[in-house]
Design brief:
The complex is a heterodimer of chains A (about 290) and B (about 190).
Chain A (H helix, E strand, L loop, with lengths): L1 H25 L6 H9 L13 H10 L12 H12 L9 E5 L20 H5 L17 H5 L5 E4 L2 E4 L9 H5 L5 E5 L4 E3 L7 H7 L9 H5 L5 E4 L2 E4 L1 H7 L6 H5 L5 E3 L28
Helix pairs in contact in A: 2-3, 2-4
Chain B lengths: L1 H12 L10 H6 L4 H30 L8 H23 L1 H7 L3 H4 L3 H12 L4 H30 L10 H16 L7
Helix pairs in contact in B: 1-8, 3-4, 3-7, 3-8, 4-5, 4-7, 7-8, 8-9
Classes of the chains: A alpha+beta (about 290), B mainly alpha (about 190).
Chain lengths: ~290, ~190
């Protein structure tokens, strides 16, 4: 009986092993060994900032598709772009370091409150209810959907307003895609000026709900010598390339012209230091759902 | 009619997950998103059906003639592990898109006791090959149903305010218990 058991087990084990070894030969899939090398060169954050599903997907695409440039990894920055270019034999090109920017100064503008929200503490959830609890439909709702989405812990919420740590931000764009109000934007780190409002409402409507918001008067558009400022859908759009190319000789006339002081110089004001404790704090108790009600 | 009853009882009444408590690891681990749950459920269905048929044949033609029934567990584990490896290689070569979507779950199934459970159950119930095949499909459909339902509920948890101590696995376990209780109601359906 022992002999039979041993023979059967060994026999089955041997047969299984043989089938597997033959199968591994017959069904072997040849993989480009360079994919692994390129994947290792990437930061491995799988943030999706490059537009591909993850680091491996980008590595495969950059090796196989001549149209995919080696500098798409924003989390890795210029160093990774250089390394990927070396590995793939493509020209690295220039990488303009970007950073996420919040186009809203809700607290400063004392945005009017529309209603008390008591529900799922997510921005996407709050937005479903008449555009959110703030009177401005384009303000930061402050429940931190972007904070949770940020793979690099670069954001935190303070006073219902999101803050970004430029030091930690890799410009992967995850937060920009997450924000239901579209108040986050990727801008060049070198950007000189930016408008701190993202409202698409007309001037009067903005004035009614926010003390600081942009009223799209167009004064900055007229004054800008570089023609870098435009108004699209009642929202200021700045062509940072043109602005940077023109340089500081304009003396930031748009900033001094703006009657609402909503166009501001970026350096060093945008660099707000992260708080010393718990950078990813989300105020969960701000809108309490009464479970006993 | 028997086949119909077999299906109904395997999916609802004796659900492999909720009534027999087999395969709880993927049930809790892969039920955070519906798409993932469907992938896992489909992979399990594929492997359970294949494993049941192969282990049935091994039991009938190798183990029974030599009276090696006491080696059932170890032989089934060996066969299922080898089978999952083979399926993984086969899919990688022949159906790369399916491999990509299931790839990460396939190795997990090796240690999924639902697969071993169904293979052993059909032997205990002394089904023939055809009934075993149908039972394995029904049992894995039950698994698929339970894991997809669970994922649907857990997706709602993401936008629900839960006490900190209940977030994540605790709420998942409580949900699993409540769902199990709910499925007990089906017990009265078939005498």
């Amino acid at each position: 009986m022992i002999a039979e058991s041993v023979v059967t087990l060994f026999g089955l084990g041997f047969v299984s092993a043989s089938i597997l070894s033959v199968a591994s030969r017959l069904l072997a899939v040849e993989e480009d060994p360079r994919i692994e090398v390129v994947t290792e060169a990437l930061p491995g954050a799988n943030c999706g900032g490059c537009g591909f599903a993850g680091c491996e997907a980008y590595a495969t695409a950059v090796l196989n598709d001549p149209n995919v440039p080696p500098n798409r990894c924003c989390a890795g920055g210029p160093d990774v772009a250089k390394r990927v270019a070396e590995l793939t034999g493509k020209a690295a090109g220039e990488v303009e370091p970007m950073v996420a920017f919040r186009r809203c100064v809700k607290v400063e503008g004392k945005v009017a409150h529309k209603y008390d929200y008591a529900g799922a503490t997510t921005c996407a959830g709050a937005k479903l209810l008449d555009g959110g609890p703030d009177a401005c439909r384009y303000s930061c709702i402050g429940f931190g959907d972007c904070v949770r989405a940020c793979p690099f812990d670069a954001m935190w919420i303070e006073d219902h307003l999101v803050h970004i740590s430029p030091a930690k931000c890799t410009s992967c764009g995850t937060c920009v895609r997450t924000c239901p109000n579209g108040i986050l934007e990727l801008i060049p780190r070198r950007a000189r000026v930016m408008v701190f409002c993202s409202s698409k409402d007309k001037g009067k409507a903005v004035k009614d709900v926010c003390e600081a918001g942009c009223i799209s008067c167009g004064a900055c558009v007229k004054k800008c010598p570089a023609k870098a400022i435009a108004i699209e859908d009642n929202r200021i759009v700045i062509d940072h390339k043109a602005c940077l190319a023109y340089g500081p000789s304009c003396e930031e006339i748009c900033v001094t012209t703006c009657p609402r002081s909503i166009l501001r110089c970026l350096q060093p004001e945008t660099v707000s230091a992260p708080p010393e404790t718990e950078p990813a704090h989300i105020p969960e108790e701000t809108h309490v759902v009464d479970l006993n009600a | 009619m028997d086949i119909f009853l077999l299906f109904i009882s395997a999916i609802f009444v004796n659900n492999i997950l909720l009534a027999q408590y087999l395969g709880n690891c993927p049930y809790l681990g892969c039920s955070k998103e519906k798409s993932v749950a469907i992938g896992m459920g489909a992979a399990v269905l594929f492997v359970i059906v294949l494993a049941t048929v192969i282990t049935f044949l091994i039991q009938k033609y190798i183990m029974n003639p030599f009276q090696l029934g006491y080696l059932q567990t170890i032989i089934f584990i060996l066969v299922i592990a080898a089978l999952v490896q083979f399926v993984e290689m086969f899919l990688k070569k022949m159906v790369p898109p399916l491999y990509k979507s299931l790839g990460i779950y396939l190795p997990l199934i090796t240690t999924n006791c639902a697969v071993l459970g169904v293979a052993i159950l059909v032997q205990r119930k002394e089904f023939d090959l055809w009934t075993s095949f149908l039972y394995s499909i029904a049992a894995s459909l039950g698994f698929l149903l339970a894991i997809v339902l669970m994922a649907g509920i857990r997706e709602r948890f993401v936008v629900t305010r839960l006490p900190r101590s209940m977030q994540g696995v605790p709420s998942g376990l409580v949900m699993a218990g409540i769902m199990s209780l709910a499925f007990l109601a089906f017990k009265g359906m078939i005498a």
